[in-house]
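Here is a protein:
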Amino acid sequence: MERNYVVCDLETTGLNPQTDRIIEVGLVRIRQGEIVDKYHTMVNPGMPLPLKIKRITGIDDYDLADAPAIADVISNVVDYIGNDAIVGHNINFDLGFLSAAHGLPLNNPHYDTVELARLLLPGAVSYRLESLCSKLEIDAGGSHRALNDALAAANLMVMLLRKMRDLDLGILIQLNKLLGEAHSEWNGPASELIKELLTKFPDRKISHLSYLRRAAEKENQYPRSVRGPSAGEKLILEQEDVVSLLKEGGPLADVLPAYEYRPQQEAMVCEVTRALNESKFLLMEAGTGVGKSIAYLLPAILWSIKNKERVLVATHTINLQEQLWFKDIPMLTEIIKDPFHAALAKGRQNYICLRRWFGALDSPHQPDEAAFFARVLLWLGVTETGDRSELNTTPAESDIWLTICGETEGCLGPRCPYQKDCFVSKARKNAENADLIITNHSLLFSDIKAENRVLPSFGPLVIDEAHHLEESATTHLGIQFNKKSFNRWLWIAGRELAKLSEKAPPADGAKWFQMLKTAQETRLELLEASRLFFEQLYEMVSGSAADTDYVYSSISLRLPFTGESFEVFLENGRRCVNLLRNFAGDIKACAGLMEIWALSEEAWAGLLRDTASLGLAGETLAGDLHFILENIDTRFVYWADLEVSSRAVNRNCSLNAAPVDVGRLLFDRLFNNKETVVLTSATLTVSEGFDHIIERTGLNYLSGERLLKTSFDSPFSYDSQAMLCINRDLPVQGAVNDDIYLEKLENALNKLIVTAGGRTLVLFTSHRILREAYRRLKPLLEIHDICLLGHGIDGSRSRLLEEFRGEGRTALFGSLSFWEGIDVPGDALACVIIVKLPFASPSVPVIEARLEDLASQGKDGFKLLSVPQAVIRFKQGFGRLIRSSSDHGCVVVLDGRVLNKSYGRQFLISLPVRRHLRGGIDFIAKKVAEWLENNQDRCPRC
């Protein structure tokens, strides 16, 4: 397999080879698996370096002043590479720049170490070069310099190829087949390696298993009988026994080196313990820094141990779920004397189904499917859980995952030949043996929809991040018909029918093949009908896209709407429903014929379940589309979401239905069946009261004595740690011409960000305003050596946060997803700017329907819905600044409505600060400068 390679890395002024320039070239030659030579040159790009590039590389314009131009060195670079294969981390990026500089494409074989790493390290958290080098303990020598990165990529490739050499030969052969189907360049080296191994070790055993690791059966470590809701008498949990674990010098202090005793946390523990003992519902707001997760986990676990009654904890975000699972639970195992068992519960679709996997492996594959299956093949050699979260999948791979994941409808149960190794069964058994289950809102509502057949039965329920409860229920108790998912199902159905047509039936051959033919003909009719249906839907909104210069814009269209076009839309939709039902019926008819054969031939049993599952999925799709088109239930709101872009080829859209009154559903289907529920969050109250959350989540249907309410302030001293400033002279967006507003916004943001020396998080409610402000401010801030990062412009949310945390003099523009759930420690954040009060648009179909519903009851929807929702999000945005007792900084609100509107007071009294400054931008910038200077000695971040 040993080849001659040249590993290449370039540093450039940007990402576009047509408009950006090379500034550094690093090449490393590999012979017989060893590094034998290096080439390096700086390049003068003939243009000033962008600030971000200076920051990333450490290269300045002065460093390039005497360097040769690319025209003077490109021939040397091409000659050095010669006919050798070219390797690089994201090699197509480098090839694009080399080809543009050379004026001709480089036709050498080329290999991407990112692809190789994704194959051989399927569970890596990140595939960035520096992350992989850190994981594999490769000396990177400082990243983002061309020669250092080329050397790192060379060492990475050598190490990964050695890892490939150590693979089981049978696995390697299967891998090579998939690489061929994927049209992967690594198919060549893999083929050569197989030939080499067969030549050197002709007797080497070839395994036919597609997975290698079988977790050893573990003895039941938790023989205690754990049940769901207890039918017996409750055993009281003594408060003193619980709070003693939190005392100064107590067990928790022993395992946490920086432990600080917080009386608020102790009080929270007492309230949760009371709710458990008295079978109450508890609404509990806990400010940042209280330590609420420990405050509910500790009594919940002790309660479960004492009463042998399972407790369920549901979070909204994956981040919090992972914090509980990887940090809090392991810590509590050290301080709780009695053994307990916790489980992380996920839906079946999170686990691979081995029967479906082997069936898919034996089929021909599309290139993207084969590339993903190659990763899965090697991952199955190391996974013990079969959990897709270990795979670090892309969105496209997530779609393919659905063809091999566990599904209830396709499960053979005890008849499955892989039952012993079934990952779904193991996860289910683990949850059934657990005292405490950690899950998310999504699975909780899936359990509700499935009438409690998804999760093991449980007693007390803790809902964290409960301010998202109405939103979560709206999403998961509603119905969605998604174009992308529908097309995927249609493609899978076509492939499965093609596979069945290749099977020789044991009887009724003529009937069998006629049924398959009929099904395929119906499928083609449905394919054409659905194409026309979606095309007509797009045509109706084609002139509504306001922002086609960017990747895409999203448009929501309330259903039904008036006009002749809706009747055409409805007629096309009904035709799709009828054809979809017919096609599902054709599939079920095939399954019906297979039932007889499955009784005598086991091979048909799996095919039967897959076919029946396809038919059932088709019926469900037809039912969902019919429900939405015909507005079956007047208690629901109906609408279409469409992605509209001048550049997108495969635009997605979805038809949706959601309940208008979620509170009634929550009470009837969840709360009415529970004895103890704890709902907690850092932001539950509005104007220091719980009325909004009680009304919106159905807690108002409880009798008054069953509901406890309590709130705990943060232990942080906000009045000394944070300064709140409110601007008076910026006009409200929409009240003046857009150009005037943007000019004044540009001026305000520029002054504040420069005053703070970067270190600023700016929170927007509009992607359009964010992008326009970014365009105007980026060159202005770079004059002051401040780098600007924009959400949806410079990378993903996680990547932007990583850069923001790691760099000084950086500003980050974030949209709604940045208003909560992010922590920026250290000196990276000194100022949070809230551009506009975060009111949800009243034109959003769900909001619009709820406002109409409140109006029909004679209630003020703006006062009861719009303002409280905005206040809660406003509190979340404010909370981004102070995350520890050592943090100091400023929050600046640019929306003057908080001062001059009657509802503004609700925003102010909901914050943990009791005073604020108000004035024009110049006054505020001056006060921010003074505050940061005065607090410089108190906190290194300022």
Remarks:
- Residues 5-166 form a domain with the Nucleotidyltransferase; domain 5 fold (CATH 3.30.420.10).
- The chain has six domains: 5-166, 169-204, 246-341+435-478+660-715, 345-433, 509-543+554-635, 718-934.
- The CA atoms of residues 683 and 717 lie 18 Å apart.
- Residues 215-223, 545-551 have pLDDT under 50 and may be disordered.
